[in-house]
Amino acid sequence: MFHKEGGKIILISTSLTVFIFLFSHKFLPDMIWLEKGIQVVTLILLVLVLQFFRNPKRTVAINDKHIIAPVDGKVVVIEEVFEEEYFKDKRMQVSIFMSPLNVHVTRYAANGKITFSKYHPGKYLVAWHPKASTENERTTVVIKTAEFGEILYRQIAGALARRIVNYAEEGMQVVQGEDAGFIKFGSRVDLFLPLGTKINVNLNDTAVGGKTIVASK
Prior knowledge:
Elements: H1 7-27, H2 32-52, E1 66-68, E2 73-83, E3 89-98, E4 105-107, E5 112-120, H3 132-135, E6 138-145, E7 149-157, E8 164-166, E9 173-174, E10 179-183, E11 187-193, E12 198-199, E13 206-207, E14 213-216
Antiparallel strand pairs: 1-14, 2-3, 2-13, 3-11, 4-10, 5-6, 5-9, 6-7, 7-11, 8-10, 12-14
Helix pairs in contact: 1-2
């Protein structure tokens, strides 16, 4: 199963692969090694595109007392920080870094109502750079939850990412684990939670979007 954001790219990549296979077969009949080499490289590139846009179906155990991982990836930050855009106070930040090999679907971390959603153009620093959260292209979304109050998540573009897709709109009621958007290529998502929230992950843990419980009551 593939994400809808990859539809156009998958179609173009598949068409190019078929064209290159046919072209190389017709015009390189006496250079089998070159023909096969080109075909293998092209097929590998197509497989990479397909795996990048994969969207595995996951059963989410919905629980208002849980904050689940919004994305797949590696936990790279767990620290108390000053969140300056929306809360303007101290929050607990948990950041998950996605490599190009991870599933890049963003999922809602909790049930609730979208109270804030804003896109920011910006730079394309590597996603693990300390200033990526405030200087890179990004979207900021706030969900008002029943158990945690307002929580914030931020989709951040990386050095390779050139498009962030955000489905959250102010006033929407969202369901934990449902599709919230997509980030193309390496990137990261920051979660900002109330101080005192119990964090259930550790640095360098591998998070699974829609499955891993990042925090709980």
